[in-house]
Amino acid sequence: MKIRNDKRRIGIFGFGCVGQGLYDIIQANPQYGLEVASICVKTRNKQRSLPASAFSYDPNQLLHDESIDIFAELISDADEALTIVRHLLKAGKTVVSANKKMVAENLSELLQLQQQYGGVLLYEAAVCGSIPIVRLLDSYFGAEPLKQVSGVLNGSSNYILSKLYYEGISYQEALAQAQALGFAEADPTLDVQGNDALNKLCIVAAHAFGQVVHPEEVLCFGMQHIHAEDVALAQAIGAKIKLVASAQQAAGQQLRLQVLPAFVLSGNELFTVDAEFNGVQVEAEFAGTQFLKGRGAGSHPTGSAVWADVAAALSGFRYSYSKKQTATAGRGETEVVNLYIRAAEAALLENLPLQEVLSLTDATHQVQVICSISVSELRKHQEVIEKAGIFVASLPIGLNKEELLAASTERYLSFV
Ligand SMILES: NC(=O)c1ccc[n+]([C@@H]2O[C@H](COP(=O)([O-])OP(=O)(O)OC[C@H]3O[C@@H](n4cnc5c(N)ncnc54)[C@H](OP(=O)(O)O)[C@@H]3O)[C@@H](O)[C@H]2O)c1
Question: 14 C-alpha to center of ligand 1: Å?
Answer without folding.
Answer: 5
